[in-house]
Amino acid sequence: MIEKKKDGSTVLSVKDLRVSFNIENQTVEALKGISFDIYRKEIVALVGESGSGKSVTCYSILKLLPVYASVSGQITLWHPEKIENLLSLPEQSIRKIRGRHISMIFQEPSAVLDPLMRVGDQIVETVMAHRKVSYSEAKKIAMEAMEKARIPEVERRFYQYPHELSGGLKQRVVIASGIVNNPIILLADEPTTALDVTVSAQILKLFKSLRDNTDVSILLITHDLGVVAEIADRVLVIYRGEIVEEGDVFSIFDSPEHPYTKKLLSSRPVLKDVI
């Protein structure tokens, strides 16, 4: 484990997290005792191939795993009210944290947004679920979040439905909904996978802006090392449910130590002999 950043305080600490799934009388280990910390105002990339345990880590933090999952360990959140072990909280308490102190951004915005509801009202709904404000005040807060997410023509977009927006704009709406309550942590699960290269670059630029201009920390789940190189401060490499290497982005790319990390880096496409 690398030393704690001198300019950051811990906002989330995962210790010995173990997750297994009991399926058809068989036990499948998904996470085998992973531990890591996330500090204030940083972007941490959790990198690994499909099935390595990246998304399970995210869902564990928000207690969104299915009932046939067995979970042990400790996930500690530092937020303004108190310090809490998320795994020990009842459902009613964790609901107050989801969307308020920790928000999740999924890779496919169309699967998250309600097709029958105006996108602005969906953000308003997130506000009113956690704050005792009027609709007009919630709308003002929602529109400010849309501006932070760099959605153009906010007044017009507020009243549109998801099918009227491009993939990039829908993802920005999801991000706006994620940041509207000023969370401590954003969990971004492959947030650029469904987007083209140009729009992906814009979304990554937005994440960097959020890190730089707010107090939010971001746990970025990805298999794309290009994304990691672009925005991550630190990198966690996960392989078969275990974190096999951790370091700042420069050391991981310049001098990887674990064979799996080296294999990941060597698998990057390289353009050669381009005329």
TrEMBL record:
<dbReference type="GO" id="GO:0005524">
    <property type="term" value="F:ATP binding"/>
</dbReference>
<dbReference type="GO" id="GO:0005886">
    <property type="term" value="C:plasma membrane"/>
</dbReference>
<keyword id="KW-0472">Membrane</keyword>
<keyword id="KW-0067">ATP-binding</keyword>
<dbReference type="InterPro" id="IPR003593">
    <property type="entry name" value="AAA+_ATPase"/>
</dbReference>
<protein>
    <submittedName>
        <fullName>Peptide/nickel transport system ATP-binding protein/dipeptide transport system ATP-binding protein</fullName>
    </submittedName>
</protein>
<dbReference type="InterPro" id="IPR003439">
    <property type="entry name" value="ABC_transporter-like_ATP-bd"/>
</dbReference>
<keyword id="KW-0547">Nucleotide-binding</keyword>
<keyword id="KW-0813">Transport</keyword>
<dbReference type="Pfam" id="PF00005">
    <property type="entry name" value="ABC_tran"/>
</dbReference>
<keyword id="KW-1003">Cell membrane</keyword>
<dbReference type="GO" id="GO:0016887">
    <property type="term" value="F:ATP hydrolysis activity"/>
</dbReference>
<comment type="similarity">
    <text>Belongs to the ABC transporter superfamily.</text>
</comment>
<dbReference type="InterPro" id="IPR050388">
    <property type="entry name" value="ABC_Ni/Peptide_Import"/>
</dbReference>
<feature type="domain" description="ABC transporter">
    <location>
        <begin position="12"/>
        <end position="265"/>
    </location>
</feature>
<dbReference type="InterPro" id="IPR027417">
    <property type="entry name" value="P-loop_NTPase"/>
</dbReference>
